[in-house]
Every structure is written in structure tokens, then in C-alpha cells.
Design a protein that fits this description.
This protein is mostly helical and about 240 residues long. Helix content is about 65%, strand content about 0%. It is elongated and about 80 Å long. About 25% of the residues are buried.
Length: about 240
């Protein structure tokens, strides 16, 4: 049985390697020519194969976009999960939000093609399949769980609507990242024209939506034990 299975395993591995090579080249092309400029023919040329051979792996251009969407969504989910290991140790809500926003922006600037495909709508008629969209849903659920933990730690009010808070945070961070990608994609997160505003925007969000600080505990006045001085008069 092992002698029969080995060739099958090699073929499956070779197929996977070919798909990964094609996806890597597609990412390069998206970075060079934009997401909508992706060409199966150009990918095949760079791979040194005829275009019809590529259709064995991707029956259409939309199928290629679908695979790219799945790969990109899985990548940003992993990046955010890894970033949150360090974020959990930060003391304030503003600091945690800033770190999360920077982690997202850093990934997006490093992966502009994926970012456009995931967060914009650059390809008319493209809609990811449920399988390709699954990691994106995972990112939403991961973010929602994180906001829930912030609430349980007392950083958001106990009666706050987590879904609305997350919606507003996504609007804020997506706007910053989109402006940076559209206007100055070669700048860094820390010095970018738009991404450098993340700390102040996170602080503003924390002031608006965070739990109010607990009032300082009033210290009880010590009981006076001072003995009044004697007047020296006898009664």
C-alpha cells in the first residue's frame, strides 16, 4: 500500500507547491500593477508554463482571486493573533488600542495587494466564496472576543454594546489604513502621514468609549489624640 500511496503524495505535494508559486507571483503582480491588473497569462509566463496549464489549478481569474482572498485573510488573522500576545500586558485601553491599530497598519502596508483585495472592492463582480471568507469571519470573531475581554477587565463600560464599539473602531482604523495606502504607501507606520495619528486617535476613542476612571478613595481623617494644653488654673 505504501508503494502506491507515495506517488500520490508526491503529486499532491507538487500540486500544492505549484499553487503556492502561482499565488506568490500573483501577489507580486498585484503590488506592481494593482489588484485589478492581475493576469493569469502573465503569471503563467513568469512560471514558465503555458496559460492553459494554469487553468488546471485555477479554472478562472475569479478562482485565483478567491484563493488570494483566503490566503490574505488567514495572514492578517495570524498577524493580529500574534500581536495580541504582547498587547495584553499593556496597562491602559488607549495603549492597547494603539498597539492593535499599529499591528494592523503594519501588516497592511507590508501587504498592499492583499489589503486592497480584502478591504476595498477593486475587482468588479468578485465576491469571495464562503470557504475563502472563513478567515475573515475568524478575524471579526477574534476582534469581538478581544473587545469582550477588555469589557470584562473594566476598560469598557459594563453596559456598552460591544458590536457597536467594534464597528466604530473598525471604521476608524480602516480609514487610517486606507488613507495611508492610497496616499503614501511607502511611509512607515510610525512616521506615516496618517498612521502616525493612531496614538492620538486611540486615545480619543478611549476617552469617548472607555469606562470612566474609578473615583479616588477618600482617606479617612485620623482621630485626633492631641491633649489640649492646660490653662494652669485650678478649680
Amino acid at each position: 500500500m505504501e508503494k502506491v500511496a507515495a506517488p500520490v503524495d508526491r503529486r499532491a505535494r507538487r500540486r500544492r507547491e505549484t499553487i503556492e508559486e502561482a499565488l506568490d507571483l500573483a501577489v507580486e503582480l498585484m503590488a506592481e500593477q494593482g489588484v485589478a491588473g492581475l493576469s493569469l497569462g502573465e503569471i503563467a509566463r513568469r512560471m514558465g508554463i503555458r496559460p492553459p496549464s494554469l487553468y488546471v489549478y485555477f479554472p478562472s481569474k475569479m478562482a485565483l482571486y478567491d484563493a488570494l482572498f483566503n490566503r490574505g485573510a488567514a495572514g492578517v488573522l495570524q498577524a493580529m493573533q500574534e500581536a495580541h500576545h504582547a498587547i495584553a500586558d499593556l496597562p491602559t485601553l488607549a495603549e492597547r488600542l494603539t498597539a492593535a491599530g499599529r499591528a494592523l497598519a503594519r501588516w497592511c502596508l507590508a501587504n498592499p495587494g492583499y489589503s486592497q483585495l480584502l478591504f476595498w472592492r477593486p475587482v468588479p463582480g468578485f465576491q469571495p466564496s464562503p470557504e475563502a471568507y472563513a478567515p475573515a469571519l475568524g478575524l471579526i470573531e477574534f476582534s469581538r472576543s478581544w473587545f469582550g475581554r477588555l469589557q470584562s477587565e473594566g476598560l469598557f463600560p459594563a453596559d456598552a454594546d460591544i458590536d457597536l464599539l467594534l464597528r466604530d473602531w473598525v471604521i476608524l482604523t480602516a480609514g487610517v489604513v486606507s488613507q495611508q495606502l492610497a496616499n503614501a504607501p511607502d511611509e512607515t507606520v510610525d512616521t506615516g502621514r496618517f498612521t502616525s495619528a493612531l496614538p492620538s486617535l486611540a486615545a480619543m476613542f478611549a476617552r469617548e468609549h472607555g469606562a470612566p476612571p474609578a473615583p479616588p478613595r477618600r482617606r479617612k481623617s485620623p482621630v485626633s489624640t492631641t491633649v489640649a494644653p492646660s490653662s494652669g488654673r485650678s478649680r
